[in-house]
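Help needed: design a sequence for this.
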């Protein structure tokens, strides 16, 4: 392949030595670019692995929240059933006890 400015004779040695300097510079830049591409590839693989792990954690949390929501719904249903009956005094005691436990936990955490 013939390049512009590279002649067969005369000042060809001067131009050829300039050409090799450019080749060396290009190879050096190419190696730097290759290293950067490898770093980006490694980073993107790590990001992909982290995304898969986070998606797995989110799926597990979704399952846990669904089961907790079901349990909470059943508990609320029982409390409503208690409030409809003649056991309102028992319901008041239960609510007061829950408030007491809440304030004791709040006080314990606040002192910590």
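Sure. Designed sequence:
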């Amino acid at each position: 392949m013939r390049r512009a400015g590279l002649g067969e004779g005369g000042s060809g040695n001067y131009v050829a030595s300039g050409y090799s300097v450019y080749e060396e510079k290009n190879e050096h830049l190419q190696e730097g670019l290759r290293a950067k591409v490898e770093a980006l590839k490694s980073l993107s693989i790590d990001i992909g692995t982290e995304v898969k792990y986070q998606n797995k954690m989110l799926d597990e949390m979704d399952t846990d929240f669904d089961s907790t929501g079901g349990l909470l719904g059943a508990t609320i249903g029982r409390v409503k059933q208690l409030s409809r009956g003649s056991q309102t005094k028992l319901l008041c005691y239960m609510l007061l006890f829950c408030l007491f436990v809440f304030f004791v936990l709040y006080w314990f955490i606040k002192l910590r």
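Residues 7-12 have pLDDT under 50 and may be disordered.
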